[in-house]
Each structure stands twice: as structure tokens, then as C-alpha cells.
């Protein structure tokens, strides 16, 4: 298929399926915590706006959670079928870690998800809030175990090799491997930023459509505060993560920077643009800032670090891919910081009202930044995974040695099936989510008596699939009476 070998197709198939799985859990991690914050705010203030926002985003969370679970099931298939020697060689370490993820995080999420989705008028407020917190904590525990497994593959330790297989020697060293704390924190913050950008984009879309009401203003305000505070923290965490990568995976860092060799006494520039050429062993058309690479990565004005030429050709990752995926991630991060700073500036009142809700260039910028978190996550994982090559367990097991002995034909067929099925299933799910977001926050009746049960009429057998009375297709859906348009002097009532 297109001249690709069985190894190439196995890698493409894994990258394709895992990219989808990365995106949906990233949304659910941030969204679960956001829902917990909204419910806590309601319990403390009893303001209706928090209830409306909670149930508005709860529907989005439920659909994305389901898509995340479905996409995650494929991971076991991928590892067991296409990477059988990896399973045989490192299964005694990776297997228990992924099992712990299922036994702790997944059952915690699934066990309380029903109460979270359907228990608002069936259980007490404290119990419902506990269920929401349990789901949010479950998503974080799930991320912890998965990042522990992947980080161990990046920086393996705490193992021994017996009988041609890796066996655990120190579980604490395995889980708390050198890259684990940085990657876990980096990923969780990325999930929070992703959620904030989606929430902010949804609010911006409603405001651009002249649907200005307290609920929309509230979610815009909360999203912008999160971006303002967390985006700079993410940059600092990324810096520490880069220093950790320099120490434990110097070839990856050299590929990220397009750095080939050191000249005696010469500082390393920070390249802003360039085209790394793996054959000619140089970065063409390089445009950089002198000394800045040394300053950032070594914290020294004239510091140096290993170039790609110091590693054998067969041990070098593809610098062209890693170089640009890293810069895409960093560039989007800088735009997030800009968005947060712009929102802070617009909070200054002019003529008694903040401009955050009405400046259309800012709202369009916030709208277009909606998918930026998802793109940045994909770029970051591309940097991580391609930068690890040619190793699947860094320094221990090569990718070429971990693949199953399949032919290119069956792999090409299964890849084509995955592409068609994924775009159909997850495309439909994503379209459904966007339709729900488009509707905007609706009034939620706090004390509606529970419906259904034996003898009750018009009770659907499957409540979650029951038809909604209000059409989702109407772009000009009427706003509820309790969510009035805010104009002029009423601007600050709900902030």
C-alpha cells in the first residue's frame, strides 16, 4: 500500500487509532473537573446559572466519554495483534499497569457515571456531587496509569531481563520513572486547557449569534480565567519537561531543535524555521535566534548539548517531523497565552461595561482557538512518539523488533477498515456534540419529580435515547425566559 512496509502500516494504524483515543479522554478529563467545579459553585451559591451550565455540558461529557471508551478498546487489539513481541517481551510490566487502570479508574468512572447523568432529582445534592467528583477523580487516575505505562516506555527503569523477557524488579521505580511526573502534569494541564478553549469557543459562538445571557457570559468568563492562569503554567512545565528530555532522551531533544553538531565555543541558536534533512545531516534554510537555544536548554549563555551527528544513523528519530510538530505545539501554546492576556485586557470597563462580551475580533479569535488544544495535544504526542523512534521501549527494544510478523496486505486492509469505521462513527458523534453545543445553555428545572416506573405512561424504555421535544436543527432557537439578553446597564449583574 503506497510502497509502505508491514512495519510502516502497523505504525500508521496504531498512530491513527490512538490519535482518536487521545482526543476524547483529553476532553473528558478536563470536562469532568469542570462539571465538578460547576456543581460546587451551585452548592455554595445556589445560583441557577451554574445548574444550567452543568446540565448543558453534562450532555457533551456523556457523548465524549462514550467515544473515548469505544476508541480505547482498540488499544488492546492493537498491542496484542500488531505488536505481539512487545506484549511478549514487556507484557509482565505493561499488562499489570493497564489492568490497574481498568480496575481502579474505569470502574470508578463507570460506577458513578449513572448517578452523575441521571441522579440529579433522584439522590441528594451531596451524593450527586460526590458522584461527580468520583468521575472526575477517576479520569485523573486513568490518566495517571496510562501516562505511567507510556512514560516507562520512554524512560524505562526498575526492570530486569530474564529468559529474554522484561520482568519487574521495583514497581515504584517503574511507575515513578524519570519522565512520569513531567508528562503527567503536562498532559493533565493540556486537558484542562483543551476544555477551557472548547467552552470559550462555545460561548464566543453564542455571543457572535447575539445570544448574550448570564449563562453564556459565565462560561466565557470561567474559560478565559482558566486560560489566563493555566497557559503560562503549561509553558513552565514544558520547560522542565524539555530539560528532563535532554537528560534522558538527548537524541529526541536534538531532533526537536534541528541541532546536528556543536562547534567549539559556539552557542546553540533557537531555530524558528528550518527544514531538517536526514540524508544531508543539516537543517536547510535555518532561521534562528543566537544563543537562545543554549539559554533555554542549558540555562547557560554558551552552553551546548549533543547534536544528532553524535548518534548513529540508525538511532536517530525523524527530525523533520519532530521539529515541526514541536513548533506547532509551542506556537499554539503562545496563542493560548495571547488569548488569556487579551481577555484580561478586555475585562477593563469602558463606559461602565467590560468589552469581553462584545468585541467581535476577540470573539472570533476565541472561536477559532476552540480546536487549538486538541491540535496541540496531537502535536505533542507526535513529538513524543516519533521522537522516541527507532525504539518502542527506549534503549531496550526497537520498534522493528516489536512488530508482529504480518504481511502488508492484511495490515492495509485493516487500516482501511479502521479509517472508514472511525470517520463514520466518530464523525457522527462529533457532529452530534457540535449540535448540542450549538443549542446553548437551557433552563433546568431544579425540582422536577422523577418520571417513569411501573404503570407510568409515555415512559421510554431507553430514557437516554428518548426524543427531545425541541429541535436541534433550529439555529435561531428561542432563548429561555430565565436567560434574558443582557444589554447596557445589566452587564455586570451575573459576572
Task: Describe this structure as you would to a colleague.
The chain has a domain at 181-398. The protein is 63% helix and 7% strand. It contains 14 helices and eight strands. The chain has a two-stranded antiparallel sheet. The protein starts with 5 loop residues before the first helix and ends in a 56-residue tail after the last helix.
- Overall pLDDT score: 85
Tell me what portion of residues adopts beta-strand conformation.
5-15%
Please report the number of helical segments: 14
Biggest sheet architecture? 2 strands, antiparallel
Query: Which class best fits the helix and strand makeup?
Result: mainly alpha
Please tell me what the overall shape is. Answer: globular
Ends apart, CA distance between termini: 57 Å
> What integer value in Å does the Rg equal?
25 Å
Number of strands: 8
Poorly predicted tracts of residues: 469-482, 487-495
User: What is the N-to-C succession of helices and strands?
Assistant: HHHHEEHHHHEEHHEEHHEEHH
Q: How do the strands line up in the largest sheet?
A: 1-2
Classify the helix fraction into a percent range: 55-70%
Amino acid at each position: 500500500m503506497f510502497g509502505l512496509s508491514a512495519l510502516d502500516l502497523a505504525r500508521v494504524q496504531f498512530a491513527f487509532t490512538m490519535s482518536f483515543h487521545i482526543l476524547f479522554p483529553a476532553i473528558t478529563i478536563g470536562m469532568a473537573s469542570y462539571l465538578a467545579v460547576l456543581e460546587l459553585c451551585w452548592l455554595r451559591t445556589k445560583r441557577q446559572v451554574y445548574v444550567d451550565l452543568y446540565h448543558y455540558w453534562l450532555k457533551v461529557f456523556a457523548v465524549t466519554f462514550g467515544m473515548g471508551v469505544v476508541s480505547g478498546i482498540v488499544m488492546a487489539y492493537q498491542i496484542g495483534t500488531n505488536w505481539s513481541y512487545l506484549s511478549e517481551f514487556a507484557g509482565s510490566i505493561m499488562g499489570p499497569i493497564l489492568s490497574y487502570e481498568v480496575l481502579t479508574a474505569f470502574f470508578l468512572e463507570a460506577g458513578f457515571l449513572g448517578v452523575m447523568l441521571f441522579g440529579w432529582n433522584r439522590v441528594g445534592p451531596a451524593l450527586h456531587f460526590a458522584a461527580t467528583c468520583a468521575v472526575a477523580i477517576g479520569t485523573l487516575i486513568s490518566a495517571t496509569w496510562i501516562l505511567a505505562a507510556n512514560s516507562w516506555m520512554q524512560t524505562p527503569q526498575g526492570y530486569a531481563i530474564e529468559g529474554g523477557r522484561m520482568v519487574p524488579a521495583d514497581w515504584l521505580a517503574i511507575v515513578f520513572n524519570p519522565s512520569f511526573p513531567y508528562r503527567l502534569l503536562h498532559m493533565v494541564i493540556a486537558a484542562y486547557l483543551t476544555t477551557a478553549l472548547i467552552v470559550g469557543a462555545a460561548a464566543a459562538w453564542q455571543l457572535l449569534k447575539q445570544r448574550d445571557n448570564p449563562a453564556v457570559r459565565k462560561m466565557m468568563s470561567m474559560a478565559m480565567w482558566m486560560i489566563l492562569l493555566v497557559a503560562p503554567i503549561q509553558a513552565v512545565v514544558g520547560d522542565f519537561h524539555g530539560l528532563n528530555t535532554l537528560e534522558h532522551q538527548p537524541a529526541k531533544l536534538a531532533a526537536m531543535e534541528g541541532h546536528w553538531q556543536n562547534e567549539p565555543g559556539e552557542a546553540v541558536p533557537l531555530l524558528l524555521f528550518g527544514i531538517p534533512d536526514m540524508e544531508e545531516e543539516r537543517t536547510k534554510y535555518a532561521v534562528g535566534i543566537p544563543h537562545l537555544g543554549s539559554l533555554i536548554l542549558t540555562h547557560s549563555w554558551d552552553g551546548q548539548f549533543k547534536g544528532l551527528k553524535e548518534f548513529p544513523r540508525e538511532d536517530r528519530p525523524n527530525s523533520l517531523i519532530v521539529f515541526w510538530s514541536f513548533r506547532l505545539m509551542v506556537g499554539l501554546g503562545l496563542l493560548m497565552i495571547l488569548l488569556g492576556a487579551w481577555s484580561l485586557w478586555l475585562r477593563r470597563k469602558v463606559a461602565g461595561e467590560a468589552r469581553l462580551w462584545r468585541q467581535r475580533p476577540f470573539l472570533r479569535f476565541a472561536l477559532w482557538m476552540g480546536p487549538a488544544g486538541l491540535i496541540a495535544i496531537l502535536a505533542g504526542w507526535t513529538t513524543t512518539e516519533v521522537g522516541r523512534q527507532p525504539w518502542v521501549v527506549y534503549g531496550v527494544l526497537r520498534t522493528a523488533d516489536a512488530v508482529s510478523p504480518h504481511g502488508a496486505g492484511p495490515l492495509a486492509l485493516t487500516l482501511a477498515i479502521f479509517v472508514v469505521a472511525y470517520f463514520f462513527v466518530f464523525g457522527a458523534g462529533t457532529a452530534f456534540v457540535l449540535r448540542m453545543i450549538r443549542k446553548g445553555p437551557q433552563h433546568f428545572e431544579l425540582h422536577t419529580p422523577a418520571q417513569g416506573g411501573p404503570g407510568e405512561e409515555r415512559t421510554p424504555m431507553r430514557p437516554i435515547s428518548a426524543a427531545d421535544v425541541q429541535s436541534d436543527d433550529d439555529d435561531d432557537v428561542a432563548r429561555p425566559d430565565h436567560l434574558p439578553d443582557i444589554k447596557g446597564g445589566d452587564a455586570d449583574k451575573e459576572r
